[in-house]
Amino acid sequence: MRITITSIFVEDQDKALEFYTKTLGFLKKHDEPAGEFRWITLVSPDDKNGTELLLEPNNNPAAKEYQEKLFVQGIPATMFEVADINEEYNRLLKHGVKFTTEPTEMGEVTLAVFNDTSGNLIQIVQN
């Protein structure tokens, strides 16, 4: 068993797609109609056949509440690993990304947390 797709709730699929591809650098793998929404998945440019990130609409009241509560409590919705957290932090700052936590050492890892502009906090981590 392995993880093939994981999802993140987003307020606006087009806005999320733009941020996750143009700002973060993920690649679009699928973009298919799915009722009134779309099935949009992204992959890392470093692992094009790896785990896909699904940009899931938060139109379900339970999903929206879950997303909002995580955000208010400062809990990241997911985590991405980076090779050099300070380099990535500075690159994202130049793109206007708003961080809630600057790079911080926590034991064997260094982490930072930013707002993805789609209703989520995202944690980046360097092992």
How would you portray this structure in words?
It is built from three helices and eight strands, in the order E-H-E-E-E-H-E-H-E-E-E. By secondary structure, the protein is an alpha/beta fold. It has a single domain (5-126), classed as 2,3-Dihydroxybiphenyl 1,2-Dioxygenase, domain 1 (Roll). The strands form two sheets. The chain has a four-stranded mixed sheet with strand order 1-4-3-2. A hairpin with a 5-residue loop joins strand 7 (109-115) and strand 8. The radius of gyration is 14 Å and the shape is globular.
Topology:
Elements: E1 5-10, H1 13-23, E2 27-34, E3 37-43, E4 52-57, H2 61-72, E5 78-81, H3 85-94, E6 99-106, E7 109-115, E8 121-126
Parallel strand pairs: 1-4, 5-8
Antiparallel strand pairs: 2-3, 3-4, 6-7, 7-8
| Biggest sheet descriptor | 4 strands, mixed
For the CA atoms, what is the radius of gyration?
14 Å
Strand numbers in spatial order across the main sheet: 1-4-3-2
Q: CATH topology, anyone?
A: 2,3-Dihydroxybiphenyl 1,2-Dioxygenase, domain 1
Q: What's the CATH first level?
A: Alpha Beta
DSSP strand content: 35-45%
Supply the CATH architecture. Roll
Overall mean pLDDT: 97
The helix-strand sequence is EHEEEHEHEEE
Domain count, please report it.
1
DSSP E strands, number: 8
Pfam family, one: Glyoxalase
Organism: Terribacillus saccharophilus
Protein name: Glyoxalase
